[in-house]
Amino acid sequence: MDVRFRPYATWGHGATRKRKGRFSFRAGWADTLDLLDRELHHLRARDVVIGAALRETDIRLDGWPRANAAAPWHPGVEVSFEMQLRAGEPTRLVYATDEYEFWQHNVRAIALGLQALRAVDRYGITRDRQQYAGWKALGAGEDGHTAHATRARGVHLIDQHGGVRAALRATHPDRGGDPLDFQSVQMARES
To answer: pTM here?
Structure first.
């Protein structure tokens, strides 16, 4: 499978507060990779990237995580790739989730979602792969509404903890804080 991993510094998608647990899927990692490979092959996907909360040093030169990589600081993953929707230029699609406690389970959820979307074509319900259009990459960064909500959360946390430094200390992931709250405080501090 021609896939590479890339680390992300912040989880730029909506946060799931109550994640599904460790017994959500019985399939192993190899089965998940087989399913993802099969679905991407059917879609004729190119330039496949899995974004995970890893450090640069946790990724080998071939683009895959090292065997001794530290656990990601956040379980969310983002799978993006290029595919042909209609005649013309290829389109980059992005699928992201943090619904499950483990990042490997989130990769499986995306693979199963791709399988379900492909079923829509198999049963002749759509033409020209319309069901994929909603996952077009919107470009870098968050949309205005999400960014505003994230900053507002950061301002609230700064007020709650009595200042920027105290809020950063209280929300820092290395001290048991929520990485999304930490990101919110950082965004509020920078604005």
So the answer is: 0.67
